[in-house]
Amino acid sequence: MDGSVRASSDASAGPPPYLRGNDNSLVSALKTLLFFTIMMVTLPIGLYFASKAYIFEGSMQMSSSDSYFYAAIVAVLAVHVVLALFVYVAWNEGMPKGKGKED
Question: Which domain does 65 fall in, by range?
């Protein structure tokens, strides 16, 4: 009987100690993920239509079928740039920001 009382008091104690203090880093990680998710959706689609209409068909006077092809290449390159930036930011997110030389 004493064990059941102890188990119920442990369950109401709150989150484990290793989760306390990490709320700021969790919010920061979620903000970073949300930012890059929005960029992954909007940037390639926007660059596709903008480059197709203004660069390839407007300035370069390409045919519609050629402009589709080159605009798709621009969109794919934009996806790769966003992914590379996300990996770079995620890799450096946990690094300490010390400016001095550490021994």
Answer: 38-94
